[in-house]
Amino acid sequence: MTNERRSLTFFESLFYLWRVGPVVASVTLEGGVDAEVLERALRLLQRDHPLVRCSFRRTPDDVAIELADDGPGLELVAPGDNGLVRVLNTGLEDDRRLYRVTLAQGPESAVLSFAGDHAGSDARLNTLLLRRLLGHYADLLRGVESAPAGRSAFEGSLEEALLAAYRPGPVRAPEAGEPPLTLGAPTDAPGELAVRAFAFEPETTAALLAAARRDGVSLTNLLVGAMACAVRARFPEAGPLPVAPAFAVDLRGRVEPPIAPDAPFCCVARLVCSTGVDADDRPAEVGRRIGAQLKEALAQEEIQHRLVSQREVGEATPLPPISFMVSNIGVIEEYPVPEGLRITDSRWATTSRGPVPTLFGSTVAGRLTLDLVYDTAFHRTEVIEEVAKQFEAVLLTALD
């Protein structure tokens, strides 16, 4: 490995080979954005975070991330275009840039989208980089240009951090059990992605957080419980039925020493839980049961051992069947904006191709936003809409 390229690790190569695609962070800005100044801000970000200048290169021997002298420029797209859906559905090439930054500017507002390939990034990293991009933009408008940060594009990897603390072990196959409830129908190939969005004003968000604390669960577990109840509601059979949610777990703070928030690589992996859900279960009850499983699996460091083991054998560890996935990154530090601009919406998501719909969430300025991403080849929009309405109704019963 030189200072201009590094091969993808086994874990990263799975994202690349499975063509997972970008992790997109976007903000809607009320007011006009100076595209030329934003372009300069992007160059400063690429200077300080060289990963944003990188591309994938596939050879007969490996797939690598290579550093380029120049990064991608700011792309101007038509206003009114749904940046999240458009970027999620952008086709992928084998040799492609890791990052894409777009601006859709209308007469009164603009949508800024910051997309980084999941093989080299995740939501925590990309929302942080978007915040630093907006920070550079605000500084430049004030006539200030920050000094270079002197970062490298290649500062290790998640597997390197794990291998320093864990020994490889056997790859354990998932235990056989009753298949969980799913929403998707079988199909031969993935299709276009669609998004069902939710937004909760600060008062409702605060009330949901208070209700979760009162019931002894996290907000994420409350969301999982509500979605599990919504999925269960589509099936008329009596008695508890198995629902298997997956969590996206950020491993930065789960290794020693902890990985920095702006480390230039993906630090997220999935963990699957399962519980029986009855028709009259409340979301906090379901969330508490699932949360107990999650807590136990995290205490046993199940993900860390799995990732180290699969690297040793060179094949992905099979996961049990999944009903849906939830990835809530919690509170995001407010984005800096110059005078005259106001953020009216903030979202993030990544591709969720195949039969498993994924609920992506974050809280900015006290406002909880959620995006349910689903593959239209596997899911009918009317079914997702029914589940979404049920999810929201069930979630709000926690306030009763």
Automatic annotation (TrEMBL):
Any keyword Transferase?
A: yes
- Report domain Phthiocerol/phthiodiolone dimycocerosyl transferase C-terminal positions: 192-372
Broadest EC class assigned to this enzyme:
transferase
* Keyword set, alphabetical order: Acyltransferase, Transferase
Q: Name the InterPro entries on file.
A: Alcohol_O-acetyltransferase (IPR052058), CAT-like_dom_sf (IPR023213), PapA_C (IPR031641)
As its record notes, the protein acts as a catalyst of:
2 a mycocerosyl-[mycocerosic acid synthase] + a phthiodiolone = a dimycocerosyl phthiodiolone + 2 holo-[mycocerosic acid synthase]; 2 a mycocerosyl-[mycocerosic acid synthase] + a phthiocerol = a dimycocerosyl phthiocerol + 2 holo-[mycocerosic acid synthase]; 2 a mycocerosyl-[mycocerosic acid synthase] + a phenolphthiocerol = a dimycocerosyl phenolphthiocerol + 2 holo-[mycocerosic acid synthase]
Q: So what EC number does this one have?
A: 2.3.1.282
Under the heading Pfam families, the entry gives: PapA_C
- What superkingdom heads the lineage? Bacteria
State the family named in the UniProt similarity comment for this chain.
Answer: Belongs to the acyltransferase PapA5 family.
- The protein here is known as Phthiocerol/phthiodiolone dimycocerosyl transferase
